[in-house]
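WARN retry 2 of 3 for item q-0093 after timeout on previous attempt; input resubmitted unchanged.
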Amino acid sequence: MPYSLLPTPRQATHGFTLIELLVVMVIMGIALGAVVLQLLPDERAILREEAQRLALLLENAGLEARASGRSLAWTVDKNNSNQNSSSKSDTYRFWQKNEYSDWIKIEHDPAFRARALADGVRVAKVSIEDQPLPAGEYLVLSAHSFALPFQIQLQTVHVTANVVGHSTGKVSVQLNDVQ
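OK item q-0093 returned
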């Protein structure tokens, strides 16, 4: 067969061009970034979860106090070692009055055991009837009277949450962004 001067059809090439590979890599990077952002909880979600957990525990403690006829109390232990450190967090615990009217730590009850707040979450302030609760004092959940309105403010760097106790015994949560 003689050699032809006419161009032959181009043979099909196998593989991808560099541009095609780069486009695919960029798309995969964007998709992976979106997935990682969705999987990592943000500070607002962490604070909301901590505030809702505390609200439910306080509401249940109030119900338990009225059902058992023994008052319960709540206290917070502030981590004052370094306010800028997020590795250590505030803890809180529940107390119960014994038959001698002394406050005893609740230690072996799975619901009312001592708990630590998530890293970066701290108790900013506690007030009862709009008066600050002095350090070392108890937030009392009475067994024999209406609940006193209280507010516990949890805070992260950018968000605050107010855990609000009403005189009906209901406890609610309000989230606010810090300006």
